[in-house]
Structures are given as structure tokens and as C-alpha cells.
Amino acid sequence: MARRVDHSHEELGEMILSAACELVEAGGSSALTARKVANTIGYSPGTIYNIFNNLDDLILRLNGRTLERLYLHLPRPDPDKSVENNFDGLLRGYLEFVEQNRNLWRILFDHRPSTEEELPEWYNDKVSKLLGLIDRVIEPHAPDIHQNELREISAALWAGVHGIISLADSRKLEVVSTAAPLDLCRLLVRSFLSGLTNTVKS
Amino acid sequence: MARRVDHSHEELGEMILSAACELVEAGGSSALTARKVANTIGYSPGTIYNIFNNLDDLILRLNGRTLERLYLHLPRPDPDKSVENNFDGLLRGYLEFVEQNRNLWRILFDHRPSTEEELPEWYNDKVSKLLGLIDRVIEPHAPDIHQNELREISAALWAGVHGIISLADSRKLEVVSTAAPLDLCRLLVRSFLSGLTNTVKS
DNA sequence: ACCTGAACACCGTTCAAGT
DNA sequence: ACCTGAACACCGTTCAAGT
Q: From the C1' of D2, which residue's alpha carbon is nearest?
């Protein structure tokens, strides 16, 4: 019908992502549809596809923002504190974020990269930045460690914690334990870190 | 159109679940639709809803079967073997199952219980039976442990391993480590078990 | 009693046609 | 050049009407 110069390409992208964010926060991932986004910003469905390749692409950008916000929400590791203290800070920060942004957090991990293609670099960078926080907690604990080993340790620990929180979120741990997710995470982290020195002989 | 006594209520349930299983194996969760299931078994869409409450209910039953099959696929812990050996057996069995049944495994964990209602007892029993395998591996390692603590340890360890495998599956660990999931799991399990004795003073 | 299949209220995505 | 909105090919779910 019309050519509208009300909003630039970039502005439209912003508006779409904001609308998507609101819709997910309010109604979970099933509330995020191209039609609803279009409706929210007062454009037609087709407009979404002028800016994003498809819904998957849109979700990937949204998840990028969530990663960014998570990074800003987590406390910075303090070299003067103990490893356990620092890790506990990250843990509590992460759980707090999950609680406050449950639906955004869910869509962050529910989303599976569509095909065999790699995730874009800007996305991997954001993930890497987050893992860097864990590196910085563990590094002083094992100063002579190889960079590769450090990354494996961070990855294993982070993935382990994530597993507990994500299974707790889908209520698949209720059968098996009444313990709070935070306590299970602490059990995992403490034992893992305590056992690390015996296992990795650096 | 017709009353068909070709198949009993139970037979229809079987046929539907088999068809659902095939569809998921072949095309992932997005290939599982009521219409396709109906088509596969030669009935109308409405028939599905005579047997199951809705698609969620159908998926829950399908997941029950997957849990059953996973239990049968895993090796039984051997009291004569070491904890590490036994756990490695479970680990390799689990990874093998995931590889051979990727789409069924994905739908098992993607599925989030719809409302606030509890999971049915028959489902929780199947999960519990699986966790029991881990209990039996750890128990001889710490014979004087409380039942509750044992369950927490099993849960934390299982969830941790699950986290690694599930993040690896969605390629969210590639950025951070080139290590194979099995190796990351071993790192987690070994350090955790090694550190356990220092952490839990039973 | 059992099963149908049309109907309702939705989807993602495309693309010829308008301004 | 930009945006539309109708169109296509799908969804889950229901329920009056058939046998």
C-alpha cells in the first residue's frame, strides 16, 4: 500500500526485537509469532521478512541480546576472593537472572541452530565472553594450567551447572531430589573444584 | 462416516504411538503432527483425540517409551567393578543411545510439562528407575551415606552430565572447547567423584 | 458407540501489486 | 524503494452429524 519512511531499516530492527522481547516475556516462546510482532509494531507480517531472514534469525538476534544482558547482570570475579566465593557469586547471579527472565532464558536454550551451518561469529563472541568469566574464576586456582585445559574445565563446569538448572526448570529433578537447584549446583561445583587438583595434574 | 471395530482402543493407542515414533525418528519433533499421525495409521485427525487428550499427552507417552528403551539399553552396574568403570559404562551407554535415537532423545527433553500440574506417577517411576542405576554405582563408593544425600549426588551428577551432552547437541560448546562430549563428561565425573569424599563428610 | 471430516482460529513465508 | 496483504500450505483441536 505505502512506502513509509517513518522508520529506518535499523529502527525497524530495533522495534521488532523489542516487540519480540515483550511478547516472549509475557507469553513464552509460543507467543512469539511473526504476525503478532508485526501487529505490535503496526506493520504487516511481510515487513518482518524485509529485515530478518525468518523467525529463526529473529530469535537468534533476540538471544544475542539476552546473552548481553546476562553478561551485564553477572558479578565480576574478584581476584581477592576465593574461587568458591567467586563461583558462588556467578551462580547466584545466574540463578537470579533465570528467575527474572525465565521465558527469555528458555528460548535462549530451546533454540537449536537450524541446519548444519555454523552460528554467526557475533553470537559465539558473546558466549565466549560469558565463559571468560568462569575462566577468570578458575585461573588463579590453577595458574600453570594450559589454556585448552582451562577452557575444558570451564566448559564442563558451566555445562554441568546449566544441566542442573535446566532440568530443575522442566521439573525433571523433582522426582529424584527435593534439594533446591542452588544447593545441587553448589554440591557439583564444590566437589568438582575440590577433586580437580587430583584429576588434572598440571 | 463409520464405526470401525478393526482396532480396539488399546490397539489404536499402540498404532498411534508407533506412528508417532516413526515420524519423530524420521523428521524430528516438527514432523510430529496430529494430522500426520492420523494419516499414517489411516484414521482421521479426530481419532487421535479419542485416545489422547492432546498432542502433549501423546508426546508424554512417547517419552515414557523412550525412557523405557533407554533403561534397557544401559548396562547394569557391576559391584565387582570400580565406581569409575561402572560410571563410564553408563556414560558410554547413554551417549550411544543418544546417537542412535537423537530425535527421540531431543523430544524427551524439549518437552516441558504444560501447566503447573505434576507429571504422572508412571512417568516419574521410569525416571526414578534410571536414576537408580546411578545410585547403585555410587552407593558402594560411600556406604554410610544417607539416602537423601545419595539421591542428591546422583541427581547433581546426572544433571551435570546431561547438561554437557545437551549443550554439545545444540552446538553451544563448540565455541568454547573442541573436546568431545565424552571427554568433558569424564572430566566432570572424575573430578566430581574424586572431590566428593572431601566435600560430603558422611 | 465409534469415527468422521468440516470448521475455527490460528501458524510461517512469499511475492505480485500498489505507492 | 519500500511496504502491503492476499495467498499458499500448513497447524491443533472440536463437535455435529453420520453409521
A: A3
